[in-house]
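Please go through this chain and its backbone structure tokens and walk me through the local backbone shapes. Keep your notes short.
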Amino acid sequence: MAGAGDSGEARWRVFVSHTSELRDFPARGSYVAAVERAISACGHVIVEMAGFPAADMPAARLCRDRVRSCDVYVGVLGTRYGSVVPDMPRVSYTELEFDTATEAGLPRLVFVLDTGAAQTGIPLSHLIDSQSGARQDVFRRRVQASLVTQPFADPGTLGQLVERSLRELAARRARTVAPATAGRLLAAVTDPFVLEVHRPVQPGDRRPGLPVLPPYVAREHDRELARVVRPAAEGASGIAVLVGGSSTGKTRACWEALGLLRDLPQPWRLWHPIGPSRPEAALRELGSIGPRTVVWLNEAQFYLDAPVGGLGERVAAGLRELLRDPARAPVLVLATLWPQFWGILTARPAAGEDRHAQARELLAGRDIGVPAAFTPEQVRQLAGSGDPRLGLAAAAADGQVVQFLAGAPELLARYEYAPPAAKALISAAIDARRLGMGIALPLGFLEAAAPGYLTDTDWDTLGEDWLEQALAYTAAPCKGVRGPLTRVRPRSVGKAAESGYRLADYLDQHGRVAAAPSCPRQNSGMRRPASPTLASCPPSPVLLRPAACCVTRPACASTPLPAATPRLQRC
């Protein structure tokens, strides 16, 4: 709501839908004038077609946008159908306005001219719609069948009906704002992972007492977020939408911002709707949100881009109403979005249906960008924190610290549960790097080495395209970081600019401290293709055999190697 009237009731934007004869007659005081006086008497704002500005868009879209921007729809239906929409020749603007209000979930107060009254103050020539009167009859019957309407035959009666209906609607809403029941007390919300903060990587030698989350280094977006949270703590409702790529720190920033609300004299609550589906949970409980509640919408596209039954738009409309309702203030909406979803939800379509009008109004101007990388100074702060997890992350390439912290557990899981061929490729890459091979691992080497990590059964059941499938699996990103094993694209051209495959940094580090795999000679299930032996290879370079066991171990001295296995150059 925009504010409050003199009586303290919520101040609404009320859309008035009518046809021209109701604006023009009776001459001494029209029906629409009586409606506007009633709306003003209640302290609300009048919105109608006559007040539309010039705009570079089709009139129908502007009409829809204006209806959706309102809190209440008031329809005054006479006997005339009215002007038809240019792109919808069988639909009038008044019918379009009613249908838009219905789709947006607005309260609809409809008043219908009594055609049986002896005198209405409208000349007969303006009452009869010879061209589209039949359509108006159908429209009136449809409206009367879908909700309770009130008849009128003079402006005074209509004004009284409108004012009484608005006041009763305000009273009903006031009664529904019960003490807050949705959500949990913020003091009881102590587990960040319940709110979908990513679990961080854990060091191999995890020491006792290590906190569940590493220390936090505030960045510019945290300061912007605080400028939204602090006014909420002081009583003003607000919304902040953190926009950034996968695993850039959006949800962690929201978690840290909750600290500004935790120790206030009046306790706050936190509401995180998730079931049976996110938009359904949001719609079901929005009405029970009370003052001092944080609305937690991580991955907000799941709430706002739900097309079935217009759920997403209904959620957005409900959130807008919540934020503008002084009776339920303060509330704070914290949302996160990837940039591509921000674009989908806020872009205005060039033509056709505007599927995200409510979401656009909710989100526009509330975005806070979250950068993908830390600055060098921020990385130095991480390195000096004393937390081993941040020490690992500080070495992350291109300053992508959060991606490293969140992606490392995912990388390990993808490696551990990989299909046999993909796991064989990753294992070969880990051993190759541990034994000194360069960053860009040749595809031919990986293809030759992988069979040594497969059992006979696994090898025999592989399809002809096993290598392509395995590489597709290893290339899939993990929470913003590159997949376990991904192609390196050369920046230069020419014969020397050969591409290769790079092992993810964390798996590279992990492989250097984890136990080396068992030698194939000690595992009769390993396949060992017939090939030259180590004894026939020059002794000086380090050689990698199919399972990459250390060549200095006597048990492997005569193990055959695939003919295609290359010598490894030490880094």
Observations:
- The longest strand covers residues 331-337.
- The CA atoms of residues 14 and 46 lie 5 Å apart.
